[in-house]
Target: Dephospho-CoA kinase
Amino acid sequence: MVKELRVGAASAQQLRTFSYPSGRALRVAVSGGIGAGKSTVTRVLRERGALIADADALAREVTAPGSSVLAQLATDFGSGILNDDGALNRAALAAHIFSNPAARHRLEVLTHPAIIARAREILASAHPGQLAVYDVPLLVETRGDREVDCVMIVSAPEEKRLEHLRGRGMSEADARARMHTQADDEARRALAHIWIHNAGTREDLEKLVAECADRWLVAPQAPASS
Ligand SMILES: CC(C)(COP(=O)(O)OP(=O)(O)OC[C@H]1O[C@@H](n2cnc3c(N)ncnc32)[C@H](O)[C@@H]1O)[C@@H](O)C(=O)NCCC(=O)NCCS
Ligand SMILES: Nc1ncnc2c1ncn2[C@@H]1O[C@H](COP(=O)(O)OP(=O)(O)OP(=O)(O)O)[C@@H](O)[C@H]1O
Model:
């Protein structure tokens, strides 16, 4: 039976059951297409005490100045992807890789193993009873579902996603270029335990996620002994 929660126009469905592990933190992946609301969901869980492994932040960490990954990127793509101070020029690299699949593949081969290794370390450091959240945009592509007990996907209508990204200063062309390289919601649904439809206000989403966490992401009570 599918369980469902609603707040305003936002809804959550539990599509599959998952087991709560004993002796360690529950690991939950939060994913979704760019602009769907994944970071908002993660923020609500962080405010409630969850430990977060944020793949976008880890991508920045593993390409920091002085890293071997950044040195290799400069060798492969040329010094045009560096700023004058030697740091990664993110806009230049994004323009290159989101219009060039071979370059994007090379970037992913260089960065993903390091991102996944750091995410594992962080998730393993959560204490039992805490939520350990893996905020990972490319869940399908990197098989992030294998790192966790429960997969939560955030979806939103394409027009709303573009509106969210416009609000964050991203051009429609950049947003669409990134969307086209990512897995679609059908592929995400095949791996989802919890499906969040972010079709209402930001406040609807925030309340819905809090309710979801209270009802679905808590350890089952041990039966009372008589
Ligand atoms: C290309 C880079 C430099 C662009 O940086 P920028 O600051 O503009 O974007 P940021 O890193 O904040 O990512 C924003 C969003 O773009 C999308 N995105 C990022 N990388 C990819 C990718 N390889 N494929 C598809 N979408 C991507 C995701 O939805 C992500 O949430 C950066 O995204 C990067 O280093 N990407 C490679 C590492 C990666 O795959 N990260 C995704 C997490 S596993
Ligand atoms: N239901 C909503 N109504 C209005 N604004 C929203 C809603 N959901 C999210 N937003 C806003 O849209 C923007 C994008 O949302 P968010 O950062 O959570 O998306 P994301 O899926 O994490 O994107 P990315 O993949 O780029 O990290 C944020 O500024 C967020 O506050």
About this structure: The mean pLDDT is 96. The beta strands are 3-7, 10-14, 26-31, 51-54, 131-135, 150-155, 194-197. The chain is about 45% helix and 15% strand.
